[in-house]
Amino acid sequence: MSEFKRIPPEQAQALREQAAVVVDIRDPQAYAAGHIKGAQHLDNHNIADFIRAADLDAPVIVACYHGNSSQSAAAYLISQGFSDVYSLDGGFELWRTTYPAEISSGDSQ
């Protein structure tokens, strides 16, 4: 079984440009206040649907607040059959300072 990889925002941005899926596991209020453009909000209520509908071989980047919780979520996705999973080092907070123009707010992606 493969393992997830930890990557900095610069590598995550390069993967986004290659159509990687970005998932945000922070709470709904934090997601609504601001998230990486195109990121899908994932929580315990919708993760099963996400897994069922996902391309298990497509790259997935998991973002949280600071890059800690995303590691557990990335490991979980690997355990569910995903083959190319990344945990965003520094999380959304580092992303926000690195790529301020790549932030969306509201519930929309």
UniProtKB/TrEMBL annotation:
Active site: 64 (cysteine persulfide intermediate)
Primary subcellular site in the record, as a coarse category: cytoplasm
EC number(s) from the headed UniProt entry: 2.8.1.1
Reaction(s) this enzyme catalyzes, per UniProt: thiosulfate + [thioredoxin]-dithiol = [thioredoxin]-disulfide + hydrogen sulfide + sulfite + 2 H(+); thiosulfate + hydrogen cyanide = thiocyanate + sulfite + 2 H(+)
Entry superkingdom: Bacteria
Top-rank EC class of the record's enzyme: transferase
Domain Rhodanese: 16-104
Subcellular locations according to the entry: Cytoplasm
GO terms under cellular component: cytoplasm
Keywords (A to Z) from UniProt: Cytoplasm, Transferase
Biological role stated in the UniProt entry: Transferase that catalyzes the transfer of sulfur from thiosulfate to thiophilic acceptors such as cyanide or dithiols. May function in a CysM-independent thiosulfate assimilation pathway by catalyzing the conversion of thiosulfate to sulfite, which can then be used for L-cysteine biosynthesis.
Protein name per the record: Thiosulfate sulfurtransferase GlpE
Organism from which the protein derives: Pseudomonas palleroniana
Gene that encodes it: glpE
